Automatic annotation (TrEMBL):
Coiled-coil region list: none
Superkingdom, natural source: Bacteria
Protein's GO biological process: methylation
PANTHER family named among the record's database cross-references: PROTEIN ARGININE METHYLTRANSFERASE NDUFAF7, MITOCHONDRIAL (PTHR12049:SF7)
The UniProt record lists the keyword Transferase: yes
Keyword Oxidoreductase (UniProt): no
Membrane-spanning segments: none
Protein name: SAM-dependent methyltransferase
Length: 386
């Protein structure tokens, strides 16, 4: 596949070549084949040269994609009020995974300070050294912010994950003539190529009606994200057992319930790559310099949480969640007559909530222990669709 995309710098290209050699060595050590999940893990997280562990800018106009907090501060301000209702039932602390540039944390902390929302501690788990450095600079004025390298063993409060699940390595599976196969990665003439092998049939357990899908159907399954949900459940459960205070996780991402994820028209899966604000489907293009993502199967994530002791608190579109949490009120804090100030915010709200933009494709899954969403979220809840 010939992709017409912006040329990287010589330093970036050198880093990508170093990562490619590392992946080739990994393939050679494993008899010429590794799972796609392992390839994606190395491409994103290999020390110093992986996409998230290297030094290149990821977000904003100079990066590869833009997230909701980068679009408008109203997103974080609204999340601050949603978190307030949950922290009142648990503990006044937030734990954010994958905090990006720190913009979401900045907007939440600023709104909490301005509106008197109690927030004693804001912890961030960040794997990217480049992003952690940016976060520390952005949040220097907030002494309650701390950084962690991993899950704490126990936690009560609110966990935030905005576009975290989609960046977790996925396994690729394809329906063969007689059985499902796992699609992995090999090297032919110095180039990465896909190669299929028989797989453990447990790998396709999350696919409903897998036997009914057509031969050649390719999709992703999410065992690593499922493991994340298992650890999240253990952390919140331990927090409740130790303190008597519950907790909740708000997970925002693009994806579908299983009944929509594995439709016939998605026979090529949802894997997508992002490079310099260009989207394309080739995960072998410049490893380490592009993001690789897949849509989230929210049914699988919800089941993983519940199986490990959490409760389903809510599931809804991003539009439904933000509007129920008071996004409209945040917008109207700026007078519509002040066109210069109001119109950019109104355009941002449109992007966050429009079905043609982020409003319906992005979903919000809330799971937790001994907490519930306030009543205003009831009309938006779509948990029945899981």
């Amino acid at each position: 596949m010939q992709l017409q995309l912006p040329e990287p710098s010589s330093d970036a290209l050198s880093a990508s070549h170093k990562l490619q050699n590392l992946i080739v060595d990994e393939i050679n050590r494993h008899a010429g084949w590794i799972s796609f999940a392992r390839y994606m893990e190395l491409a994103l997280y290999a020390p110093d040269v992986g996409y998230y562990s290297g030094g290149a800018a990821k977000l904003g106009k100079d990066g590869d994609f833009t997230t909701a907090p980068e679009i408008t501060s109203l997103f974080g301000e609204t999340l601050a009020h949603a978190a307030d209702g949950l922290m009142a039932q648990s503990a006044p602390q937030i734990l954010e995974f994958g905090a990006g540039t720190g913009k979401l944390a900045l907007d939440i902390l600023t709104e909490c300070a301005a509106d008197g929302i109690p927030l004693e501690r804001y912890s961030i788990v960040e794997l990217s050294g480049e992003l952690r450095a940016r976060q520390q600079e952005t949040l220097a004025g907030f002494p309650q912010v701390t950084w962690l390298d991993d899950f704490p063993p126990a936690f009560s409060g609110v966990v935030l994950g905005n576009e975290v699940l989609d960046a977790m390595p996925v396994s690729l599976v394809v329906k063969g003539e007689t059985a499902w196969l796992e699609r992995g990665v090999s090297v032919v003439d110095g180039c990465f190529v896909f190669a299929d092998r028989p797989c453990d049939q447990d790998l396709i357990a999350q696919i409903p009606d897998a036997a009914e899908l057509q031969v050649g159907y390719l999709t992703e399954v999410h065992p690593i994200a499922g493991g994340f949900m298992h650890t999240l459940a253990a952390m919140l459960t331990a927090g409740y057992e130790q303190s008597g205070k519950g907790g909740a996780a708000i997970l925002i991402d693009y994806g579908f319930p299983a009944s929509e994820y594995y439709l016939d028209q998605r026979a090529e899966g949802t894997l997508m790559c992002h490079y310099r604000h260009h989207s394309h489907p080739d995960p072998f293009y410049l490893p380490g310099l592009q993001d690789i993502t897949a849509h989230v199967d929210f049914t699988s994530m919800a089941y993983a949480a519940v199986r490990n002791g959490l409760e389903m608190v809510g599931y809804m579109s991003q539009a439904g969640f933000l509007l129920a949490a008071g996004l409209g009120d945040r917008l109207l804090a700026t007078a519509p007559e002040d066109h210069m100030a109001y119109l950019p915010k109104a355009n941002a709200v449109q992007k966050l909530t429009s079905p043609a933009e982020m409003g319906e494709l992005f979903k919000v899954l809330v799971v937790g222990k001994a907490v519930q969403l306030p009543d205003q979220f009831d009309r938006a809840d779509q948990s029945r669709r899981l």
